[in-house]
Design goal:
Blueprint lengths: L2 E8 L8 E6 L12 H4 L7 H10 L6 E5 L9 H10 L3 E6 L4 H9 L5 E5 L7 H5 L6 H10 L5 E8 L5 H10 L5 E6 L15 H11 L5 E5 L2
Parallel strand pairs: 2-3, 3-4, 4-5, 5-6, 6-7, 7-8
Antiparallel strand pairs: 1-2
Helix pairs in contact: 4-6, 7-8
Length: about 220
């Protein structure tokens, strides 16, 4: 595993669970607003042994581990890594873009993850504008359909970036209509963003949430 960072404890990354967050390096997307772009193209700087040692020490204080990135499912050792964390008694949440359907399916069907948060970057016809790479989106669509079978707890989530508008939010919701949970996250400017674009105002974030509620069972609007 190529591990680029770790957050020792978080109250916000795993709903209802005090967790550590492990960040893997590498991604097959290149979203211009990514907050973790500084670790995506570097070799991992933290060993698996160091992570497991930390988790062993923190068993009394933590309930779960979030594996984020980057895109964790690109890591060839992800499945045994997650299995070892589960064997330690932790709940596991996976953050993913859904592009590696085979690995996601294996993790879920073998009960190696307890919660999946899948990013949906844009309506399917605008994906390339956000991820800035060409994708057929076949795997992403399979992952959406698979998660909606509710074999594990899950949410879909979208960063409401300046490139998107309310019509785009509605189109995304139509594409995932009937989903269990959908989070609309506020885009935040960071110094290394490729673009200098304004954040969405509170009233537009709230309107996006109202639109989503027409299609999704539970809607969360975060960051306002």
């Amino acid at each position: 595993m190529e591990i680029g960072g770790i957050v020792r404890n978080s109250f916000v990354d795993y709903p209802g669970v005090i967790s550590a967050v492990v960040f893997t390096t590498g991604c097959n997307y290149n979203c211009w607003y990514c907050h973790n772009s500084h670790i995506l193209h570097k070799k991992g700087s933290i060993s698996e042994e160091k992570v497991f040692s930390f988790l062993e020490e923190r068993k009394k204080f933590l309930d779960g581990v979030v594996i984020s990135g980057g895109e964790p499912t690109l890591q060839k050792d992800l499945i045994p890594f997650v299995k070892k964390i589960k064997d330690m008694g932790y709940l596991v949440k996976l953050d993913t873009n859904g592009s590696n359907f085979k690995v996601l399916k294996t993790l879920v069907e073998n009960k190696l993850v307890d919660y999946v948060a899948m990013d949906i970057k844009a309506p399917f016809n605008k994906y390339e504008m956000i991820v800035t790479v060409k994708r057929s989106l076949e795997n992403e669509k399979k992952s959406i359909e698979f998660l909606m079978k509710e074999l594990t707890d899950y949410e879909f989530r979208t960063t409401y970036s300046p490139d998107l508008n309310l019509d785009d939010i509605e189109e995304i919701c139509k594409e995932i209509e009937g989903a269990k949970r959908y989070s609309i996250q506020k885009y935040r400017t960071v110094e290394y963003n490729a673009k200098n674009m304004p954040e969405k105002k509170k009233d537009e974030m709230e309107e996006a949430g109202r639109i989503a509620q027409k299609y999704i069972k539970e809607v969360l609007v975060k960051g306002i």
